[in-house]
Amino acid sequence: MLQAIGLTSARHRGLQPAVDDLTFEAGPGCVTALLGASGSGKTAALRLMLELDPGRGITYFRGRALHRVAQPAREVGVVLGDVPGHPVRTARGQLRMLCAAAGVPASRADELLDTVGLAGLGDQRIASLSPGMDRRLALASALLGDPHTLILDEPAEGLDAREADWMHGVLRSHAARGGTVLYTTSDAKEAARAAGRVAGRVVSIDGGRLVADQDVVEFARTRLRPRVAVRSPHAARLAAVVSREARAARRSVEVVTEASSSRLSVYGSSCAEIGDTAFRHGLPVHQLADEVGDTGPVVSHVVPGGPARRENGADGTGPSEAAAAGTAPDGPDPVGSRPVGSRPDKAGPDGPGPGPGPDPGRAEGSPAPNAAGPDLPPPIRRRPARGPLRPVRYELRRLFGVRTTALIMAVALVASAGISVLLARDGRTPLPNVLAAWPSLLPLPPAAICAGLLGALSFGDEFRYPALAAGRGTVPRRLGLLLAKLVVSAGVALLLALLVVVTSAASLRLVYGGDLIRIPPNVMSLGVSWSGLTVGCAWAGLLAAGVFRVTAAGVAAVLAVPVLMVPLVQRMPKAPTARSMTGLPGRLRELAWPHWPHETDRWVLAAMRVVAHPVGTALTLSLSVLICAYLFTSVRGRVRW
Predict the structure, then answer these.
(1) For 446, what's the count of Cα atoms within 13 Å in the CB-facing half-sphere?
(2) pLDDT tens profile 237-255
């Protein structure tokens, strides 16, 4: 059961809200279509229901507001637009990454690929998918958590008839299993056809306000009427002749001239009668076919002494409010239709309306529909997105699901090997710099720059392709996700640092022989320094990209360490007599509980030497500033895990 009560968009610059006091229901086991022309507020209504846009109102999903659902992916499946994934990621990789976010097994991805008919295209890149395949992948993403409710925005838009029928069949199958389906459409015939043999409803809106709420059978009977589509070069003469003969025979026939002057739509007649009339008067006919026309509300004009003329498009399938020449659509008024702007939970002239009423399954403590006042619905706040349920697994799949990571690491290894061979040629560069491939001309070695780039992509790709928070344009601001990214980026940076040293040593042994490679006595201190440099650059790029929401900012923050911060540290005034920190590890051991072994003193001294180095000091200051900036911009409202 889905209940939307009093949905109202926030006003912008005095304009009318896109959605104004919209109230309706979508029941379980039912396919509900939200019907309206382009710009009628369908998408805005969905975004209000999903708490993506600010406004007023409340939406209950089986009695609970969305922000009170512990795992939204297992309650609501959403399709808004195309698949929000990296274009070079495969369809299977995208679904497996989202499986980690939803907390479901990775095998669920292969099951859904088979369900949506993409079993043989799991290795296809998202950028190469056709519109139909893209919609299938988006539907698979929505079904990952096996949700009870499906919310889709124009799911069949741009699809051919076969793909659209398949999409409607999936929606009917989900509803037949007891699920709730709500989707938007601007095609009245699609709204009536999608439900098929499953119970369905059509909620019509215009200007963000409710126009009618009908079951699909009544909607098809009162709004979709059979008609005869006629195309003739003498359409005006044929319309006048058909109208005159209908009046003479006292038959209820409506003749509508479409926007194209050569087309007519005739209601209340048949192809045989129109063909006979055209033949008797010698009027040529280029098209004569039975169709189903939409007679929904739109502004229409009655031409005095002639047929009515619609202004809703050349195809004549748009809605119409009044019948021409005083004729009206067959059948009674739509059952269940309500006046524009009315709310079913308010009293009408004949007494209180039925209204959606409270859901028996509504959780205790959730706000009542009118908790903010008798007529004012509660506010809808744009709430932060939830992070992935398994953040480390999600980050690993996000990082290694594209070829960019492997390509960057390969570039770092090749560049480091070449630079190491060139540095060792003259014999004047120290061996640690040779193995790290760090000449004095470069601000940072290739390994540190590439580690910073990989760290910047951790948040940069999230903001560019927001798969975690579709429609928000941002990523979840959770400490769990940040910690997972820090751990994974540090691991990748350490792996890259080790591979660079091994590759450089192997290149030197191959070119110059094994005599050049000697283990220095301070290998521990050098290893800590090298690891700290690569990990620090990776974290600097990650945090800067998270603060400024772009990859370029992360790369700039990495390059700013040697270019700006190191000269700044070196120019800091120094005291004439500096105090020594000799014996600090021993004093720390006295304060710590439990006491660490004496061998740990060497590691503490190595870390202190790294921080005392100008580059280490600059990197430490940069990371401190970036951590404070991230915490201030991301989780300043309420720290969430």
Answers:
(1) 21
(2) 999 999 999 999 888 888 8
